[in-house]
Structures are given as structure tokens and as C-alpha cells.
Known about the structure:
Radius of gyration: 20 Å
Largest sheet: 8 strands, mixed
CATH superfamily of the largest domain: L-asparaginase, N-terminal domain
Bound molecules: succinic acid
Number of domains: 2
Helix content: 25-40%
CATH topology of the largest domain: Rossmann fold
Number of strands: 14
CATH architecture of the largest domain: 3-Layer(aba) Sandwich
Order of helices and strands: EHEHEHEHEEEEEEEHEHEEH
Structural class: alpha/beta
Number of helices: 7
Distance between the termini: 35 Å
Amino acid sequence: MKSVVILGTGGTIAGTGHDPDRSWQYRAAQLSVSQLVDAVPELKGVPLEALQVAQIDSKDMSWAVWRALGQALQTQLAREDVAGVVITHGTDTLEETAYLLHRLVGGRKPVVLTAAMRPATAPDADGPANLRDAVRVVQEAARRGLGGVVAVLHGRIWAGSQVRKAHSSALDAFDGGGRLPLAVLDETGAWREAITPWPVSGKAGCLPLSAEPPRVEIIHSHADADGWMVQAVLAHARQHGPLKGLVLAGTGHGTLHQGLEAAVTQAVAQGVTVWRSSRVARGGVSSREGDVLAACGELTPSQARVALMLYLLGV
Ligand code: SIN
């Protein structure tokens, strides 16, 4: 039987606190990925390997950690004796990592991200069940010959290109931005029938992560958004290095305050690539005839930032 490799990056799933009655008071990224595996009785006897790639609160995610993760993934997925990979991650930037890997990692082996909303020391810790489910999904997807990047959280499988955090505290914190999960798991982690077709991930490989990341920032449109932020980043860039891209989190269907729009025109004239997303949770921004600024589809602003970085890297 082939192994499942579990790559640990930290997060609340590896978090600990001192008072079980105050489970919101804890520090993320305290337990090793081996300790997480040891805490799941159902994983005893399953051929697993646990490797620590990073140990961070995912709010501090960086290109450097993505690079290390990409290198580890490439090494592990190339092994004949490995069925697929689970990545334990924080919930806060999971949607960015999932989207990035969706774009880069192809092939016939599954890559499953998982996380937890409660630390390992909480009475209602959700990490052990999520980790068990993630391992089972790797095994089952590998058996069915399904590769690609997905996220397994709270009994559902989400496409890596669609998953996003939609609640800041609930155990059931993720959704697909209006898209259905790929499948629902039962209480033992077994896979019920698929709801939607399995996604096809990208095939670029993780090599682009070895490049220096182009600087791309996100700016929101809101009441009084008069373009001050755009002027500020352009001024900063003149002193500290080039700004390559801007993602705008627009109102509604990606509309912009007129003040912001005027400032963005200057940014474009200075060679900055500007894309429009929406600050609205579902629906995204579709391309329409006559668009001056490219639309980001259903990506969240932070996923759109990843997409624009890849675009600027030629991926
Ligand atoms: C993190 O994202 O690392 C902390 C929060 C979480 O995992 O829920």
C-alpha cells in the first residue's frame, strides 16, 4: 500500500491554549505535524509520513513558505511509493495556498489541504477529524485516479480553485463562493457520491516559485475611496522598488469609486497591471464587452492577487 505524506505548515490545527473554556485564547503553530498524526487513533496502522515544512500562523504566509512547500510537494509527488499528499495549514490564508497550488500542481496524485477552526487543546477540536478525513480523501482519490488540489474541511471536499473562508469563527467556516462542494463525507470520513465533477488542476509545476515574486497589492473601493491609497503605493514604489500589479476589490460587480478609478488610470499609465475583483462574497466579476480593466471571475481578491502574480511571472 502506498504512503500518504503529510506536510505540516502550522495553523490553528497545530495550536494550543491553556484554558479549554476559552478556546479562542491560544497560539497557532505549536504542535508538530507528527504530534497531530499521533492524536488521531484512526490513523494508526495507515502508511503515513509526516514532514514539517513550516510552523507559522498562516496570517504570516509568504512566498518563501510557498516556495518551500512547492519544493516539498514536487519531491513527494514524484515518489513511486506515495499515493498523495495532505497539507495541514492555517484557515486564514488557506484559500490563497489552495488556489496557488491548484494553478501549479497537476498530475494524477491528489493534494489535499486541511485545517481547523479550534486549537488541538479545545474540547471541540476539529483538527483530528479533518486530518483523518483528509487522509481518507487522498487514499480514495488515489484509488479512483483523481489528481488535483482540493481542501477537506468539516466533512466537505472543496475545489482548490474555489474554496474560501466564509466565517471567522464557526466550525463550518468554508464555502465555495456559491459553488457546491465536490463531495460530502459521512461521519466516519467515508466519501459519499460526488456532487460536482472533480477539478483539473494546472500543470505549470512549482518552478515559478523559485523566481522572485512580483509585487502585487490589493486596494479596496469604499466610501471616500479617492485614490489616496493608489497614490501612496505609487510614491512608495518610486523609492523602494517597482509595483507590478494591483488587484482592486471593487464594490458589487467590480465597480470603483470615481476617485479611485482616476488614480488607477495613472497607475496603468505607469505600467502597473490592474485587475478588478469584488469585495462581495459571491458572484465575482465577469468580463464584459468594453472592460478597461481585466475582471477576475469568481476569485476572491486575495486569490486574484495570486493569479496576477502568476500572470506577471508568465504562468
Ligand atoms: C492560521 O490561519 O494559521 C490561524 C487561524 C486558523 O488556522 O484558524
